[in-house]
Specification:
The structure holds three protein chains of three kinds. Chain A is built from 16 helices and ten strands. Chain A has helices spanning 7-16, 27-33, 62-71, 84-96, 114-120, 177-182, 196-206, 216-231, 243-249, 259-264, 296-306, 309-319, 328-335, 349-353, 360-363, 366-377; strands spanning 42-46, 74-78, 106-109, 154-167, 190-193, 235-239, 254-258, 272-275, 281-289, 355-356. In chain A, the strands form two sheets. In chain A, strands 3, 4, 5, 6, 7, 8, 9 and 10 form an eight-stranded mixed sheet that branches. In chain A, strands 1-2 form a two-stranded parallel sheet. The longest helix of chain A has 16 residues, at 216-231. Chain B is mainly alpha-helical. Chain B is built from eleven helices and no strands. The longest helix of chain B is centred in the first third of the chain and has 35 residues, at 4-38. In chain C, helix 3 (56-97) packs across helix 7 (154-178) and helix 3 (56-97) packs across helix 10 (208-223). Chain C has one domain: MetI-like (MetI-like fold, Orthogonal Bundle), CATH 1.10.3720. Chain C is mostly helical. Chain C is built from 13 helices and two strands, in the order ααββααααααααααα. Chain C has helices at residues 2-6, 10-38, 56-97, 102-110, 117-127, 133-140, 154-178, 182-190, 195-206, 208-223, 227-232, 240-249, 254-285, and strands at residues 40-43, 48-51. The chains are: A alpha/beta, B mainly alpha, C mainly alpha. Chains in contact: A-B, A-C, B-C. At the B-C interface, helix 1, helix 3, helix 4, helix 5 and helix 6 of B face helix 2, helix 3, helix 4, helix 5 and helix 10 of C.
């Protein structure tokens, strides 16, 4: 479709779209539209479910439609990332042989080894920084992660918390991991997350250990605690994002879950609540990466679009996670002051103090990996 | 004359089997009726597990779910290509097995039998290993290859059953009347074994559309309908999935019903 | 056509060629590659695979996963047995009492098969839901404990497997029952055999080929199944299929997964061998 647009065409489209967004917001896009590099016709974007704004009636994504309107690039949005290991398992084969996986953007979590592994193995493309003036909007705390210090390959999509989701109608509030794992009334109605970075972290905290520094003793304590609950029949399953359906249906009453999911699930079951465990929860960041064979330039154009605080606010308002784009909070507060009370988007400092990150070395420990899988599998 | 209780008892004994059959049918159709029923459900959220109201909307806007249409199209395309290919390859094998003598009959039979007796997971996994080692990107065509592979055996068995009962005198008669082998084949043999070939084609098509395990291993990032259900079902269970499932079911059953009626008619005509 | 006529001997090979070549290329060869891979070792950090005649993959697999292996055959066996018990009277009824409607009645058995496997299993998730109608009524009737549930149990998994593979049992049974000449049964009854005896001495033995085929066609895929265990069970119900799936597609531990696949196949072939023997002997002495 379109490759070079005139300034007039851009303005016409924006005005026709009746955008509530002001002209300054368009300037970055204009700068991109005038580059010589051709933009792809379609952007293929793999993401986690429940992670972008959606119009429940039409099932369309307003922010993506806006992107198409502005740039003419269609977005094929596929919610096929359900679990970091599962997704990586799917893409490892082709990538290891230098083949494209048919995606321009994928999203993986930093509490799994995969973003670092993808970069280390050279299976991702470098971002096109010339198309990313909005990169300056990235919040300070996320600008130099250890595994991609110059943000050459990745950009955060959202940050979030791992905590406990529970059905307030079917149980009293579940606020601690020990409660989750030992309360007999919850037997068989509890799920944990299969991802090591999430579950092991929360369990470590409940054990009084620091999830940022997991040694063999701490690891064994974690495994034993979970094993005990498993043998007692407490745990129904280890899930990726599929706890959502079970919670909505009432098959499980409490689960280790991601903060934003609970809000989106209210349409299915308004009794669901989220709590940061008393001993502490985990904070993580999901990152956009461009797999080898993906169109880095077009992907960067999209990422730049996303890092416009107004666009980020659109998505934020819906997914209720922690936004990595500075200024989005202010936009949200102006358009929807109620949202300031939403501690999922704006965690209080008390909450932030209880949020931790996983020890990256533990992620790469092959022994832990094997033992963890055995814990999950058998 | 028998007394009434005896009559009742006799009646019950005669029909207990029928009663059982009815219960069994009910059991078989229970999940199907749930699937059909819930295709008319109007859930407020992402999941279709509880009844929340009736609507035709899902049928009208069956492709409102992003990705569903593409997945269904992919499934149908793959099924069409692979079922035709498998039927051709398999029918030829069946012809050879029934009509001709040749060395290696035992080995051939074994080779046909083995894929049917190998768990799908092993079939899928070994194919994936082949593709990875040969550096072939998994996707649409690898799925087609896989489907042809496992369908050949079923086609052979189906067509063979039909061929075995075939009266060769008809062919001899045709040739006596001056037809050459080619004409005989097309005008005598083919029409008579056509139902068997058609049955095999339908079976292969159905097996292809429904396949999950082998496809999951070899699909790469292509999405077929069963894969869509598996993936999407993690995050949401849209009623539109039920719609597509019901549609496939309805079409398949109608096709088979038509086949049965057609066969009954032909049988009556020949008699 | 003259060519084919002159080279009659070639015809069968030409007919067999394409199909068998396809199978050789895409069934036999992959198994070879799988075998090769089962003897590699994986570096879990670098994600590289090296060929090392790693026979220990097989012994490791058995020691680590013998629970799941045994469980798979247990579930498959129970499911096959139940399927047989459920299908036999049904197939019998259609074959002997179906009359003109036989083919239509068969549609009832085969029809459900045409709803995608996954959707059927998801429907069971709806029917057996903890908060659903069936489970609630069973709790009322005290069949289930106050805290009881249907889903996420071995019962649910076995029930799911049974349901999903029922047509594979019912159809072969029907085919062999339908071929029985009813006059044989009449003859037996003329010779003063009771209904039951006639069944046991005439019908049942004659339907043995159907039982044989049905049990094989049900047991084999059931043993390798993982979907029912995943959707209807907990990790405590994990079958060997779940392990193989996870090792291939999540952990990408191809060597271990390949070894497990061969072990599964080997056990199945052994069991089939024993089964064939047992049934063969019975027929000779029966």
């Amino acid at each position: 479709m379109t490759n070079t647009l005139t300034r007039q065409a851009f303005l016409r489209r924006a005005l026709a779209g009746g955008a509530a967004l002001s002209v300054p917001g368009l300037l970055p896009s204009l700068a991109n539209g005038a580059t010589e590099e051709a933009l792809a016709k379609t952007l293929v974007f793999s993401n986690w479910p429940l992670y972008i704004d959606i119009n429940e009636k039409t099932k369309r994504h307003p922010s993506l439609d806006l992107f198409t309107k502005r740039t003419g690039i269609k977005v094929q949005y596929i919610e096929d990332v359900n679990d970091n290991s599962q997704f990586f398992g799917k893409i490892q084969g082709p990538l290891s042989h230098g083949k494209s996986i048919g995606r321009d953007i994928i999203v993986m979590t930093d509490n799994s080894p995969y973003p670092a592994l993808l970069i280390k193995k050279g299976w991702v493309e470098k971002l096109d920084k010339s198309a990313l003036p909005n990169l300056k909007n990235l919040v300070k705390g996320l600008q130099h992660p250890a595994w991609d210090p110059k943000r050459e390959y990745s950009l955060p999509w959202q940050s979030g918390m791992t905590g406990i989701a529970y059905n307030a109608k079917l149980t009293k509030p579940i606020t601690s991991l020990d409660q989750l794992l030992t309360d007999k009334k919850l037997k068989g109605k509890v799920t944990l997350l299969a991802n090591f970075g999430d579950t092991a972290g929360v369990v470590a905290l409940a054990n009084g250990d620091d999830p940022g520094k997991i040694d063999d003793a701490a690891f064994n304590r974690i495994v034993n605690k979970i094993k005990k609950a498993k043998s007692a029949g407490q745990i129904r399953q280890f899930t990726g994002n599929d706890y959502a359906g079970m919670l909505a249906k009432g098959d499980i009453v409490a689960a280790l879950a991601f903060s934003g999911d609970v809000v989106q699930l209210h349409a299915d079951n308004k009794n669901l609540q989220f709590a940061v465990p008393t001993a502490g929860g985990m904070i993580w960041t999901d990152n956009m990466l461009v797999p080898k064979g993906g169109d880095a330039h077009t992907a960067s154009v999209y990422m730049n679009f996303y890092y416009d605080p107004k666009v980020a606010a659109m998505v934020e308002d819906y997914v209720n996670y922690i936004c990595p784009v500075a200024g989005a909070d202010k936009v949200l507060l102006k358009s929807d002051p109620e949202v300031a009370k939403n501690t999922l988007i704006f965690p209080t400092s008390a909450m932030r103090a209880k949020l931790h990150q996983i020890d990256p070395n533990a992620l790469f420990n092959p022994d832990y990996k094997t033992k963890w899988q055995q814990l999950l599998g058998a | 004359m028998r007394s009434t209780p005896a009559k009742v008892f006799a009646f019950a004994r005669r029909h207990v089997l029928t009663l059982y059959a009815l219960l069994a049918f009910g059991y078989l159709l229970l999940p199907i009726s749930v699937v059909v029923l819930f295709s008319f459900n109007h859930p407020h959220g992402r999941f279709n597990y509880t009844w929340q109201g009736f609507t035709f909307d899902n049928w009208v806007h069956w492709d409102a779910v992003p990705g569903l249409r593409g997945a269904v199209e992919a499934s149908l395309e793959i099924a069409a290509i692979s079922s035709v290919s498998a039927t051709v390859l398999g029918a030829l094998i069946a012809l050879a097995l029934v009509r001709y003598g040749f060395r290696g009959r035992g080995a051939t039979n074994l080779l046909i039998f083995l894929p049917m007796s190998t768990p799908e997971i092993v079939l899928g996994a070994s194919l994936l290993t082949l593709f990875l080692t040969m550096n072939v990107t998994t996707g649409f065509w690898t799925i087609v290859i896989a489907h042809v592979m496992f369908n050949i055996s079923y086609v052979v068995v189906t067509v063979k059953a039909r061929l075995v009962g075939f009266d060769r005198h008809l062919e001899e008669a045709a040739m006596d009347l001056g037809a050459n082998e080619w004409t005989t084949f097309w005008r005598v043999t083919m029409p008579l074994i056509a139902p068997g070939i058609l049955a095999a084609l339908l079976l292969a098509f159905a097996l292809s559309v429904d396949d999950f395990v082998i496809t999951n291993f070899n699909a790469g990032t292509t999405v077929t309908f069963p894969l869509f259900v598996w993936g999407a079902a993690r995050a949401a269970v849209f009623p539109q999935i039920n719609v597509v499932g019901t549609a496939i079911f309805a079409v398949a059953v109608s096709a088979m019903l038509a086949n049965v009626v057609w066969q009954n008619r032909r049988a009556r005509r020949l008699v | 056509m003259g060519f084919l006529h002159r080279h009659r001997r070639l015809t069968p090979y030409l007919l067999l060629g394409p199909g068998l070549a396809w199978l050789a290329l895409f069934f036999v060869a992959p198994l070879g590659f799988l075998g090769h891979q089962s003897l590699e070792t994986q570096d879990p950090i670098e994600l590289t695979y090296t060929f090392k005649w790693a026979w220990h993959n097989y012994s490791d697999a058995i020691t680590t996963y013998h629970t799941q292996l045994l469980r798979s055959f247990e579930y498959a066996g129970i499911a096959t047995l139940i399927a047989l018990l459920i299908s036999y009277p049904l197939s019998y009824w259609i074959a002997f009492r179906g009359g003109r409607w036989k083919n239509v009645l068969l549609l009832f058995i085969v029809g459900p098969f045409f709803v995608t496997y996954l959707i059927r299993t998801l429907a069971w998730e709806t029917i057996l839901a903890d908060q659903g109608f069936v489970a609630a009524r069973l709790r009322d009737l005290h069949v289930l404990g106050a805290d009881g549930r249907l889903l996420a149990t071995s019962t649910a998994v076995v029930a799911g497997i049974t349901y999903n593979f029922l047509p594979f049992m019912a159809l072969p049974l029907y085919v062999s029952l339908e071929q029985i000449d009813q006059r044989l049964i009449e003859a037996a009854q003329d010779l003063y055999a009771s209904r039951v005896r006639a069944f046991l001495r005439v019908t049942l033995p004659l339907s043995l080929p159907g039982i044989f085929a049905g049990t094989l066609l049900t047991f084999i895929p059931a043993a390798g199944d993982f979907i029912n265990a995943q959707l209807l069970g907990t990790p405590n119900q994990a079958m060997i299929g779940n392990v193989i799936q996870s090792k291939f597609l999540e952990l990408t531990d191809y060597p271990a997964a390949a070894a497990l696949s061969f072990i599964l196949m080997a056990i199945i072939l052994v069991l089939i061998g024993i089964y064939v023997r047992a049934l063969g002997t019975e027929r000779r002495t029966g």
